[in-house]
Specification:
Helix content is 29%, strand content 12%. It has 135 residues and is of the alpha+beta class. The chain has a single domain, classed as Protein kinase-like fold (Alpha-Beta Barrel), CATH 3.20.200.10. Keywords: ATP-binding, Kinase, Nucleotide-binding, Serine/threonine-protein kinase, Transferase.
């Protein structure tokens, strides 16, 4: 029995220790403030591209309401992702990491890649205006 009254009713979080030596250490693939994946090479670059593609799918499949970001981890284990939601849902629905400006910029910033093309995803960027439309 805990005899210290100061710990009574306290909440603790215990997490698994991640061994960062398995595949070259801890890697940040995508920040929660931008849809542009980090420029990584080799296997880490492919993982980054796939995670960027998964954001595209999530954005489309949720009807433009949400996607997962802040992908990072080590040894094939992703940790501490951030749900980014449309600001119309609620300001801090998933905490302060839910960056409204990043959500609003996502359709213009997301760089479609080979995964997007292979799965038939279409670009979310608006088509460039023609010279007739500009006049």
């Amino acid at each position: 029995k805990d005899k210290k009254k100061t710990r009574s009713g306290s909440t603790y979080l215990v997490e698994e220790m991640i061994e960062d030596v398995a595949k070259g250490g801890f890697v940040k693939y995508l920040h929660n403030s931008s849809a542009i994946p980090r420029m990584l090479s080799g296997e880490e670059g492919r993982i980054s591209a796939f995670l960027s593609f998964s954001q595209h799918v999530q954005f489309v499949r949720t009807g433009g309401l949400a996607y997962i970001s802040d992908y990072q981890g080590a040894g094939g284990l992703l940790t501490d992702p951030q749900v980014i939601t449309n600001p119309c849902l609620q300001v801090e629905l998933f905490g302060s990491g839910n960056v409204a400006a990043a959500f609003e910029a996502f359709p213009q910033e997301h760089p479609c890649n080979d995964f997007c093309k292979a799965f038939g995803m279409t670009s979310m960027r608006p088509a460039p205006r023609t010279s007739q439309e500009r006049s």
